[in-house]
Every structure is written in structure tokens, then in C-alpha cells.
Automatic annotation (TrEMBL):
The keyword NADP applies. Residues 43-134 form the NAD(P)-binding domain. This is NAD(P)H-binding protein. Keywords: NADP. InterPro entries: NAD(P)-bd_dom, NAD(P)-bd_dom_sf, NmrA-like_oxidored.
Length: 247
């Protein structure tokens, strides 16, 4: 099969491409680096022409609900339109567990993105996954008060990006499912402890206080609204397993 992966050079998209190629499929990464711009639609028509499936792992770095909604409605809207014009038989979207329970900030954009796909004429599958193990490192880099790193409190059940990529590859080479079962890691973790463990692993020895960040989204995550239900598909790599491979 020939599969186009939007965001195919990113944290998860690159894993989708790897998994597809390992299984003998022809995977094409769509990104600005490869001449495709989802925000403007440049290069999309030729990129999805003749493919058997499209996987959307596109992303934007923002905490603004308005900015996230604008990006995902535009980018995924352009991708859906191009896929429909090309007669692509399957569109797979990566989303996040619990966004309908906490439609705030960035998650409001992901919920809007799901609605674009659900209204699409292209047969679709939506996979919601929990936060990635890599989330700890992202927060260590971004959650700061001046030079002081912060460890936000939240309840999460992190999953390996490689496992999400492999699961998306399997979904893309199968029949459209609508909403697939959620995907999550093997155990619940405290997000602040994940951030601290990542910091220690990478050589940071300074004090990192645990904090309850303001805002509706973080309050919801502290309440456990980002956790999957009992019917989720569970992977096997724990955060501790993943952390051992971090340099």
C-alpha cells in the first residue's frame, strides 16, 4: 500500500512512516520539508494522488484555543479536501483521549479537528491516544518561571510514541473504523514525577517544584479527565522503560 503521512517528520508521524516501511508499505512523509504545506494547501493534491490512505499527525505549538482551532480546521480541512478530490479511500486521524471532557486551550483545537474529519466525505478512522512519554521532556523545556523549571501536577497514563505510530500504521492499512478504541500506556503516572525523573536522567540537579498550574485544562487533567476508560487498548512500554533509553 501507498500511505501519505501528514506531519510525517514529527514525533509520531516519523514512527508511522518507520512502521509502514518496516511492513513493506510505501510511506510518504508530508511536511514543509517535503514541499507540502497543510496550512496553505500547497503541494497537497500531488502528494495524495494515488495513495491508498492518509494519516494525519499534524500538530501546532500553541496553548491558545483560538489559534489551535484555526490551525486544525484549516490544515485538516485542506487535507480532507485534497483526499476527497483524489478519491482516497481512508483517512486516519491521531487525536487525544478525553478532549471532549476538557475542550480547553489546545484540546479545543483537537476537538474541532475531529469534527472536520467526521464531516468528511472520505471514510475515516479516529484514534485517540494518551499523552506520550516525550511529554515529560517537552514540559521540562517549556514549563519555567525564569530560570526555574516547574513540574505541573496531572494524572496521565503515558504511551510510547513508537507504539502509537505502529498502531496508526496498522489502522491505516486496514478498513475505516470510525472511532477506534483509545490507546494508552500500561500504567498511570504522576506528571510532575515524570518531569522530575526526566530532569534527573538528563543531568539536571536543580530543585524542580511541583505546581498546580492554573487553567481549565490543567485542572481537568489533575482530576483525571485525560485518563482512558476500561475499554482502551493498552501498550507495554512504561515511562521508566522509555526513560532508560533517554540520553
Amino acid at each position: 500500500m501507498r500511505v501519505a503521512v501528514a506531519g510525517g517528520t514529527g514525533v509520531v508521524g516519523s514512527r508511522v512512516v518507520e512502521a509502514l516501511r518496516a511492513d513493506g508499505h510505501d510511506a510518504v512523509a508530508l511536511s514543509r520539508r517535503t514541499g507540502v504545506d497543510l496550512a496553505t494547501g500547497v503541494g497537497l493534491d500531488s502528494a495524495v494522488d494515488g495513495v491508498d490512505a492518509v494519516v494525519d499527525t499534524s500538530n501546532v505549538s500553541t496553548l491558545s484555543a483560538d489559534a489551535a482551532i484555526r490551525f486544525f480546521q484549516t490544515a485538516t480541512g485542506n487535507l480532507v479536501a485534497a483526499a476527497a478530490r483524489a478519491g482516497v479511500p481512508h483517512l486516519v486521524l491521531l487525536s487525544i483521549v478525553g478532549i471532549d471532557r476538557m475542550p480547553h486551550d489546545y484540546y479545543a483545537g483537537k476537538l474541532a479537528q475531529e469534527l472536520v474529519v467526521e464531516a468528511s466525505p472520505v471514510p475515516w478512522t479516529i484514534l485517540r491516544a494518551t499523552q506520550f512519554h516525550e511529554f515529560a521532556g517537552q514540559l521540562f523545556d517549556r514549563a519555567k518561571l525564569g530560570p526555574l523549571h516547574l513540574a505541573p501536577r496531572a494524572r496521565v497514563r503515558p504511551v510510547a510514541a513508537r507504539d502509537v505510530g505502529a498502531h496508526l500504521a496498522t489502522l491505516a492499512t486496514g478498513a475505516p473504523r470510525g472511532r477506534a478504541a483509545d490507546l494508552a500506556g500500561p500504567r498511570e503516572e504522576a506528571l510532575d514525577e515524570m518531569v522530575k525523573a526526566y530532569a534527573r536522567r538528563t543531568g539536571h540537579r536543580g530543585w524542580i517544584p511541583s505546581v498546580s498550574l492554573p487553567g481549565s485544562q490543567m485542572k481537568a487533567m489533575r482530576a483525571g479527565l485525560a485518563l482512558p476508560g476500561s475499554d482502551a487498548v493498552l501498550t507495554t512500554q512504561t515511562f521508566a522503560d522509555w526513560l532508560r533509553d533517554v540520553n
